[in-house]
Amino acid sequence: MKLAALLALFGVTALAEIVGCWLVWLWARHQASAWWLVPAAIALAAFAWLLTLHPAASGRIYAAYGGVYVTLALAWLWAVDGIRPDRYDLLGTVLILSGVAVMLVAHWER
Description:
The chain is mostly helical. The protein has four helices and no strands. The protein has one domain. The longest helix has 27 residues, at 3-29.
């Protein structure tokens, strides 16, 4: 799997997980209609299915995915929740993505 395709897969997987969890959170915390649980279940099922498309079910792949998840979660915080990430959020994101880059590039196609 090409690196760009893997990163895109990480992004789509993270988005499915974030959307599914956010919809459950809306239902539980804001007394939203129980109907919100239907798209939540679909999103979380898509998340689980997308995990099967990753090249390996290894700690390294999931650790790298976690870095992309954190980055997209902060983007979600800004875009959906209206809370702009501060400099510490941004610094943390840079550090996390640097770690992801080290893990992926160092072990790519040996």
